[in-house]
Amino acid sequence: MMEIAKRLNGVGEYYFSQKLREIDAMNKAGKNVINLGIGSPDLPPHPSVIKVLQDESAKPNMHGYQNYKGSPQLRNAISNWYKKWYHVNLDPETEILPLIGSKEGIMHICMTYFEEGIGVLVPNPGYPTYSSAVKISGATPIYYNLKKENNYEPDFDELEKLITQFPHQGIRGLFVNYPQMPTGQLPTVKMFEDLVAFAKEHDLLLVHDNPYSFILNKKPLSILSVAGAKDVALELNSLSKSQNMAGWRVGMLCGKKERIDEVLRFKSNMDSGMFLPVQLAAAKALELGQDWHDELNAIYAKRRDKVYELLDLLKCSYDTSQAGMFMWAASPNPSEEGALNHPLGIGGILSDKILYEANVFITPGGIFGDAGNDYIRISLCTKGEKIAEAIERIKNLKLKI
Ligand SMILES: Cc1ncc(COP(=O)(O)O)c(C=O)c1O
Q1: Mind listing the pLDDT tens digit for each residue in 184-218?
Q2: Where exactly are the structural domains of the chain?
Q3: Residue bearing the bigger pLDDT, 19 or 137
Q4: Which among 1, 65, 300, 331 is least buried, having the fewest CB atoms inside 10 angstroms?
Q5: Rounded to two decimals, what is the model's pTM?
Q6: Ligand 1 centroid vs 388 CA: distance in angstroms?
Q7: Which of 20, 38, 108, 129 to mutate to test the pocket of ligand 1 (most atoms within 8 A of CB)?
Q8: Residue 401 pLDDT greater than 60, yes or no
Q9: Per-residue b/e over 282-311, b at no fewer than 16 CB within 10 Å?
Q10: Is the CB–ligand 1 distance for residue 101 below 6 Å?
Q11: Fold for the domain defined by 63-285
């Protein structure tokens, strides 16, 4: 047997990697599963973006290794994009690092700053990659709770307590993500200001992950717009969701020159940059205006109405002010006995029932942390007709909920 490195202790295969294999097998067996799980936009990028990729990749001189810090055109486009939408000034030479998707940036940050003996605060519920990447770095994820009664904002007293209690060499990082995935909670300027002040007071690296700020949200907000934020914060951003380019793998890390140089020290040893035509097409995508976002959001809003119908049918409760490409909803009857035996609680039971009896996949909230056990998450990345079909399948089931 081959021995596996200890750094993978407590890190399993990514939930969706396993689940999509199971759904594939169900489809091969003729089940025709409707997948309302994953947040991969089904709509294409803007045609002008595809055209740049086509034209540029046809040129003979586009195929070599690239600059480790990304092409100047892409860094300039990111700088202009941050100025236009977030009112944040970023020096394209020194304060921007293009990434092969923001997911890899989470790993680079963890490998650059965290190690054994160090604790890192991660949200519960939250994007599972934060805790996996922290564990792989050798550090320990310390979960803080996001509660509905606190508008899914961090409770600073709880954070303070977690910092005081943590032994060893202390807590070095804090991951935050607003609009929050999976709860859809929007940020406020006040919360961002409080986070920056808290990170300064406790000497923490504050990592804000911001891929959803344009989806069903009229006011994109960057934590870097808070005065003095660059002293403590790094921000991850992505073209996966707002530009419909999830498979292209284009993201970015923004922050102070020193931080960007530190992360580059790790990243430049891991990969050799992105295909230049992809970078040039990404630069084009960042020039898209309000019309693009309005059109996309009109589609998502229509789908969301259908998802409300589905959630009503399931007797779930939900907040209609959510941003991002998911709906987060509380399962009915959270005290059901069987929930105690399901590793993902009542949301896990509901998700299994719907998958195995109606061939519709919805994500159990518990995969985002145990604070999500009573919840489910439905993606808006499926056409309205498919959501309608899912509703019919579930109606026919006459599920006892
Ligand atoms: C909160 C959050 N951060 C980061 C990512 C990763 O995005 P990317 O495609 O840029 O790697 C996702 C993807 O689902 C996400 O939900």
Answers
A1: 999 999 999 999 999 999 999 999 999 999 999 99
A2: 6-44+291-397, 63-285
A3: 137
A4: 1
A5: 0.96
A6: 27
A7: 129
A8: no
A9: bbbbbebeeebbeebbeebeebbebbbebb
A10: yes
A11: Aspartate Aminotransferase; domain 2 (3.40.640)
